[in-house]
Design a protein that fits this description.
The protein has 223 residues and is α/β, with parallel strands linked by helices. The protein has one domain: 3-Layer(aba) Sandwich (Rossmann fold), CATH 3.40.50. The chain has eight helices and nine strands. It has helices spanning 46-57, 70-73, 82-98, 115-125, 145-148, 164-174, 199-214, 219-222; strands at 2-4, 7-14, 17-24, 31-36, 61-65, 106-112, 130-136, 155-160, 182-187. It has a nine-stranded mixed β-sheet with strand order 1-2-3-5-4-6-7-8-9, sandwiched between helices. Strand 7 (130-136), helix 5 (145-148) and strand 8 (155-160) form a beta-alpha-beta unit. Helix 3 (82-98) packs across helix 4 (115-125). The longest helix is centred in the middle third of the chain and has 17 residues, at 82-98.
Length: 223
């Protein structure tokens, strides 16, 4: 790893490829949040970078990474390959759990758009490793009913008030999150990308509160 003012660049082995990411770990961080981006997005997404910065201000570590290589991302279909994205995200979780700088921290997942589906699948598959999930404008319906029922990590679903179709998809998915605490928060006046004034700030605030609470060492005892 090489440090710069933006954090530490990391290469995460993921089967036949390596995933490029940016890891920030504040001193005494109780948790590290890994970002699972939506289709056509990645570690340079301005929206997720903003949310990540706010999480770091709250004392959390963040890992922004590309789940697809540059060549793979040119294939539009691969952006919606939830199975592949889930597998890649699992590699990222293992990396954080085994890296000396982060092995003591609890892991949270922040999924945006289609990235929410891979985040929830990983939470279902790795219940001992993933302690909290936040979905921003997510498509949890793509997770699959079986996997949703296996999620045990507390899950916050954030949807824009103008994103009516996605609101209904999230409501339906929430009814299948039967083995974890879940909340659906609708941000008034927000569209799918939360581009309206103050709406992304609200996403960051809600996400920070959720992760700070559920990634704290005492979360299990208090809930």
């Amino acid at each position: 790893m090489s440090d710069d003012k933006s954090g530490a660049r990391v290469l995460i082995p993921a089967g036949p490829v390596s995933l490029e990411g940016m890891l920030h770990v504040p001193v005494a961080a109780a948790g590290v949040v890994i970002f699972s981006h939506g289709s056509g997005s990645g570690r340079l997404s301005p929206r997720n970078r903003y949310v990540a910065a706010q999480l770091r201000a709250a004392g959390l570590g963040t890992l922004l990474l590309d789940l697809l290589t540059e060549d793979e991302d040119r294939d539009y279909q691969m952006r919606f390959d939830i199975d592949l994205l889930t597998q890649r995200l699992e590699y990222a979780v293992r990396f954080v759990r085994n890296d000396a700088a982060t092995e003591a921290a609890q892991v949270g997942l922040f999924g945006a758009s289609t990235g929410a589906a891979s985040a929830l699948r990983v939470a279902a598959a790795m219940p001992d490793s993933v302690r909290a999930v936040v979905s921003r404008g997510g498509r949890p319906d793509l997770t699959g009913t079986g996997a949703l029922g296996q999620v045990r990590a507390p899950t916050l679903l954030i949807v824009g008030g103008l994103d009516t179709d996605v609101i209904e998809l999230n409501r339906s998915a929430q009814t299948r999150l039967v083995n974890c605490k879940s909340e659906l928060h609708i941000v008034p006046g927000a569209s799918h990308l939360f581009e309206e004034r103050g709406t992304l700030e609200e996403v960051a605030r809600l996400s920070g509160e959720w992760f700070v609470h559920y990634l704290s060492p005492t979360a299990g005892a208090s809930d």
